[in-house]
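seq:
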Amino acid sequence: MSQNSNDGGKRSARERLRAERERDKAAERRRRSLKMGALVVGVLAVATGIGATVAGQSGDEAGSQSAKPVTVGQRSAPAKLTVYEDFRCPACGQFENGFRSTIKSLQRAGKLKAEYHLVTLIDGNMGGRGSREAANAAACARDKGKFADYHDVLYRNQPGEEKDAFADTGRLIELAGKVDGLADAGFKECVTSGRHDDWVKRSDAEFRKSGHQGTPTVLLDGKDIFSDQANPLTPERLRKLVAAKS
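struct:
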């Protein structure tokens, strides 16, 4: 019995040791699981943070099905000029080059703000992609707070619509060199990657659904002031219309 009792004691000790080892292994597995769970949560949190940052940088186009226009001027201005235009559109160039100084003067005086809706009508009608590429580049300039200056440069250097020169992103980047501080690496990447192509597509789609027939479409507080050929808009008339809103 004595031998049997000794063997039983040894077996009991071995079993206890085995049980302790199993408990230790189980505890280690639980610790590893907890660590992996924490790591996954951390990765997800970082990914969510990055997504939020990208959405914040992209502004109105990320996470939204609408394409908010680009606003220039004081948001509190009493009158709002809404402009639908295409960077390949010759009539848009004539409007911009003819009314630029008047619009800017009214903006500086705090009397007028302008909302620009960018359209790719010429691309659709004549083929090519210059309207889209130029609109994307203008949105890239907007990201850097330089939309108005770059917008003006594009219209001052507008090619013939049939040439589609704005399809060349190199040309768009070259023109950005005329705007102080614009043509940096970030702007170039934005232009060449087509970062805002989706926003441009939505902007164009909204124009096509709006019922407006062509570019430029120019509205003052929602009223068409440009298409009436019997009573053509002039810079002086625009000043008077805006003054009546003040």
